[in-house]
Design goal:
Elements lengths: L1 E5 L12 E2 L17 E5 L11 E9 L4 E2 L3 E7 L4 E3 L2 E2 L5 E6 L2 E9 L3 E2 L6 E3 L4 E9 L2 E8 L10 E6 L7 E5 L5 E7 L2 E9 L9 E9 L2 E3 L2 E2 L5 E8 L10 E6 L7 E4 L5 E7 L2 E7 L5 E6 L4 E7 L2
Parallel strand pairs: 4-13, 14-20, 14-21, 22-28
Antiparallel strand pairs: 1-2, 1-3, 4-5, 4-9, 6-7, 6-10, 8-9, 10-12, 11-13, 14-17, 15-16, 15-18, 18-19, 22-25, 23-24, 23-26, 26-27
Length: about 300
């Protein structure tokens, strides 16, 4: 074996000295500079064995149209070595994996919003490329509806999660509620689900809330979900004595309870403002830089209107 020294920048020193180990594996380097050095080594007779590798190419298609899915993906897991193979997505929807060594691979394929097959056949790779593979997905079942409060008002900042009651990990879906309180869970396997609607903890004041229900999902299933709203909202506007909107001014909400939540918001270009997820209670609204003020009562599950006008 041969050895040499390199400098701190990982480059060979000027006029490098190469030495060979003796019969006992020892070596000596001389003429070293007074700087930190690292010792590298060369091993003679090293043999690198190369294993044939192949490219696997395929597509995930939506049945029965046999159309390509733009949000598709697949994953190969070497069943013997329990390792995964990287996959590349092409612009035309083709998927391919390079450097796949011979062996048997478990296949997982998916398409966002569609239902994958419960099982895809294992893929056996030899010493040749494998192409033209097709993994079908279907539309599956859909759960859709609206999330509302106990008073029927839409809740817009919740999430809906569905888990199969048989604990099948494939029977799972999650979706964020839209600005109108609507939700849609697509590509679900028909069956019975525990559906949970949850609202996160907000501002360190309103605790997180959730509710669950059991739903049998098949085809296009519709279900309105109710979440007990423990917070309220304020919406209003600010206007001067001439009736003109006061824009870009701060509105401060101060609770009657000094230990409760307080906050402020700036009016928009129309003088409007809004505060959401507020703990119920009495609040004093003041407009910074003015003498405008009013007292309101916020109730859980309701929107309180606060028109602040100069008299």
């Amino acid at each position: 074996m041969t050895a040499h020294a390199v400098g701190p920048d990982e480059h060979l020193l000027p006029d490098p000295e190469l030495v060979t180990t003796d019969a006992r594996g020892k070596f000596q380097l001389t003429r070293l500079p007074r700087t930190p050095v690292r010792v590298g080594q060369h091993v003679d007779g090293l043999v690198v064995h190369l294993t044939p590798a192949s490219r696997v190419t395929g597509r995930v298609v939506i049945e029965p149209e046999h159309a390509s899915c733009p949000g598709a993906g697949f994953m190969l897991r070497d069943e013997a070595l329990d390792r995964y193979v990287d996959v590349t997505h092409e612009a035309d929807g083709t998927l391919h994996a390079d450097g796949v060594i011979p062996g048997s691979y478990a296949v997982t394929a998916w398409c966002d919003g569609y239902l994958s097959a419960a099982h895809y056949p294992s893929l056996v790779v030899g010493d040749r490329d494998v192409g033209g593979l097709v993994w079908p997905v279907t539309r599956g079942a859909t759960l859709r509806g609206r999330v509302v409060s106990q008073h029927g008002a839409p809740i817009t900042d919740a999430s809906v999660t569905a888990n199969g009651v048989d604990n099948d990990s494939a029977k799972y879906a999650r979706e964020q509620v839209t600005a109108t309180g609507d939700y849609v869970l697509r590509g679900m396997r028909p069956g019975r689900y525990t559906v949970k609607v949850a609202r996160p903890h907000t501002f360190g004041t309103v605790p997180a809330v959730e509710s669950t229900t059991v739903v049998d999902i098949a085809g296009d299933t519709r279900r309105e979900l109710t979440l007990v709203d423990t917070s309220g909202s304020i919406t209003g506007y600010v206007a001067g004595s001439d009736g003109q909107a006061l824009t870009r001014v701060f509105v401060q909400a101060t609770p009657a309870n000094p230990d409760a939540w307080s906050g402020r918001v700036r009016t928009d270009d129309a003088g409007a403002f809004g505060l959401e997820n507020i703990p119920p209670g009495e609040y004093r609204l003041t407009v910074e830089g003015t003498e405008l003020a009013m007292t309101i009562q916020v109730r859980a599950g309701y929107v309180t209107t606060a028109p602040i006008r100069a008299k």
